[in-house]
Design a protein that fits this description.
twelve-stranded mixed beta sheet; four-stranded mixed beta sheet; 20 helices; 24 strands; about 20% strand; globular
């Protein structure tokens, strides 16, 4: 291997020659008056162009390509890297392409996962900015969330005219950091002047309903309307209390007015990228903003986007929630798989994944096959499998994947974007173009909105996860009855579930069968327009690992960062 093969992601990014953001905007037909610069290499797009994109006739939009993946493992799958490399590959073929991706959360950046700006020679830049504070969107979302929390507690302190039962408050404060110490707290202590004592807690910012609303809103007016419908708790007679009752929806929207403008950056090969919004897919709906997606579709011939984690989480929510609400539908779906991850699903320990083991690849293939079946049979969409190449992969192992996919009549392409950038994504780009030109897929959903809440959860669990049935804890059953009695029964479902397995047990790898999905808690996100069903031990505030990534980072006298991945 050459010396360049050993460069870290951040070294590659820091050596890149970036184009001024005005030039990137120009590739999309945007003028200098259409953007608001955040330094030399970042910008937000003005509201006049946002409105144009949102109102564009569907027939004039580009093709939508959705990237998803097999169930993630510690070995890594490289979905974002593949998304970026695919967009660069389309650009290398002379196609007008743009990306629409999520903003990274600083929780994983300083925790265990690292950043979310791609890797190797398929990256978004400026990488450090994107992975850290970026344009301040995360902070604005946190501030809007916490303003509502402050107004809510102040209302109770100042006489509680709405009759809010403090024991039923569902609205938590948020911070964009993994901090398990804040999961459960008691606040309002030390006397009457300091508030009403109650049990409380924090979520990570990306799990906030404000984040979900931010990513589903189509303009400021829609954002304000959705925020007004948020349910923050219940009265003593069990009636829902909304942000509109507190009267602070406009103030919260004001905090988000600049954040709602989509962010424009570039890839290492200067393909335009809209990076905007960032809900996790295991605890939220896992898609970038509708505004960014429609902006990419309006200004390019091919808009490449991704949904978080595997197809059972991000893709299901992208299709059942985002597409249902917006009328969007992918023209092609790419499922990213790696030989290493398939070996892990086949029972190989992480430390042994560099050793050739085609039998383990075969043993792990059922995970990939179930994801393929879901996209094709449950959702009715055309799919291609991208094998994201690692240096340790052998030809015989990759042939196992190719053979199984060919037997199912599914196209499979080797992706070498990590090492070769856009040139390593050309074959995948050609296959995506071919699928998009077929124009014969028709999106269908895994459930209908007129089903009961229980029936919708069961449909996802059985059709997508492969579960035999579902069960509800007593607390969840009580909330189920309350949600239906308050008129929330016709909303879509957002299941909060471990990303590591089709089941709610993270240790059940591959394609488990005959398992039950355990619903521990239900919560309405009335503003975002869905019901969150929490399963297993899923947490809306992650914790740091034993050795956080933060411990390996440094910065020098000139402000140059190292150790960020």
């Amino acid at each position: 291997m050459s010396a360049k093969d050993f460069k870290t992601d951040i070294e590659i990014a820091q050596e890149a020659e970036l184009l001024p953001i005005e030039e990137i905007a120009g590739k999309l037909g945007l003028s200098e008056d259409d953007i608001e610069r955040y330094g030399k290499f970042k910008a937000k797009v003005g509201y006049h162009k946002v409105k144009d994109a949102l109102n564009l006739d569907e027939k004039k939009r580009g093709k939508l390509v959705l990237l998803t993946a097999i169930s993630p493992t510690p070995a890594g799958e490289g979905k974002t890297t593949t998304s970026i490399g695919l967009a660069d590959g389309l650009s290398a073929l002379g196609k007008k392409a743009a990306l629409a991706l999520r903003e990274p959360s600083m929780g994983p950046v300083f925790g265990i996962k690292g950043g979310a700006a791609g890797g190797g020679y398929a990256q978004l830049v400026p990488m450090e900015d994107i992975n850290l504070h970026f344009t301040g969107d995360m902070h604005a979302i946190g501030a809007a969330n916490n303003l509502i929390a402050a107004v809510l507690d102040n209302h109770i302190q100042q006489g509680n005219q709405l009759g809010i039962d403090p024991r039923t408050i569902t609205w938590k404060r948020v911070v964009d950091m993994n901090d398990r110490q804040l999961r459960f707290i008691v606040d309002g202590l030390s006397g009457k002047p300091n508030g009403v004592p109650r049990e409380d807690g924090f979520d990570i910012t990306v799990a906030s309903e404000i984040m979900a609303i931010f990513c589903l809103a189509e303009g400021i007016t829609d954002l304000k309307k959705k925020i007004s419908q948020i349910v923050v708790g219940y009265t003593y007679d069990e009636k829902p209390v909304r942000v509109a009752d507190l009267g602070c929806e406009a103030a919260a929207t004001i905090l988000l007015k600049d954040a709602l403008k989509p962010n424009l950056v570039q890839t290492l090969e200067h393909t335009p990228a809209f990076v905007h919004g960032g809900p996790f897919a295991n605890i939220a709906h896992g898609c970038n903003s509708v505004i960014a997606t429609k902006m990419a579709l309006a200004l390019s011939d091919y808009a490449v986007t991704e949904a978080g984690f595997a197809a059972d989480l991000g893709a299901e929510k992208f299709l059942d929630i985002k597409c249902r609400k917006t009328g969007l539908a992918p023209d092609a779906v790419v499922i990213v798989a790696t030989v290493r991850a398939l070996k892990y699903h086949g029972g190989v320990a992480k430390e042994d994944l560099n050793e050739a083991n085609p039998e383990a690849v075969k043993a792990g293939i059922p995970n990939l096959l179930r994801h393929i079946d879901n996209i094709q049979k449950v959702f009715g969409l055309n799919v291609v499998v991208a094998i994201n190449e690692f240096p340790s992969d052998t030809e015989i192992e990759m042939d196992v994947v190719r053979k199984v996919c060919e037997e199912k009549g599914v196209d499979v392409v080797l992706s070498q974007v990590w090492a070769k950038g856009g040139q390593g994504g050309i074959e995948l780009a050609k296959k995506v173009i071919s699928i998009c030109e077929k124009d014969d897929s028709k999106l269908q959903f895994s459930y209908e909105l007129d089903q009961s809440i229980e029936s919708k959860i069961r449909s996802i669990s059985q059709k997508v996860y492969g579960a035999s049935d579902i069960s509800f804890d007593v607390k969840a059953l009580k909330e189920l009855r309350r949600l239906e009695s308050n008129g929330f029964g016709d909303l879509p479902i957002c299941i909060a579930k471990t990303q590591y397995s089709f089941s709610d047990d993270p240790k059940a790898l591959g394609a488990p069968k005959d398992f039950i999905i355990h619903i521990k808690e239900l919560k309405v996100s009335a503003g975002a327009g869905f019901i969150v069903a929490k399963t297993g031990d899923i947490m809306t505030m992650p914790g740091l690992p034993k050795k956080p990534a933060a411990l390996g980072m440094d910065i020098d006298e000139d402000g140059v960062i190292s150790g960020l991945s």
